[in-house]
Write a structure and sequence with these properties.
By secondary structure, this protein is an all-alpha fold. The protein has one domain. The chain is 67% helix and 0% strand. It is built from two helices and no strands. This is Transposase.
Length: 60
């Protein structure tokens, strides 16, 4: 997992946008992990199918 850390002086609206982006990323990550864990071996969940699934989630 890549972790980026920075110190910044932000406005309240920017802080809200950052928090919303973090929640969105966590939601998509959790959904993709759940799909991968629950899938059967025959389903062949690979990086391409996870990418397609993330695109579907992004449109929601």
């Amino acid at each position: 997992m890549i972790v980026l850390e920075m110190k910044a002086v932000v406005k309240p609206s920017q802080c809200t946008a950052i928090d919303e982006a973090i929640l969105t990323v966590q939601f998509i990550r959790n959904k993709a992990l759940r799909l991968w864990m629950d899938a059967k071996r025959e389903d062949k969940i690979d990086k391409y199918s996870l990418n397609k699934y993330c695109a579907v989630l992004a449109k929601q």
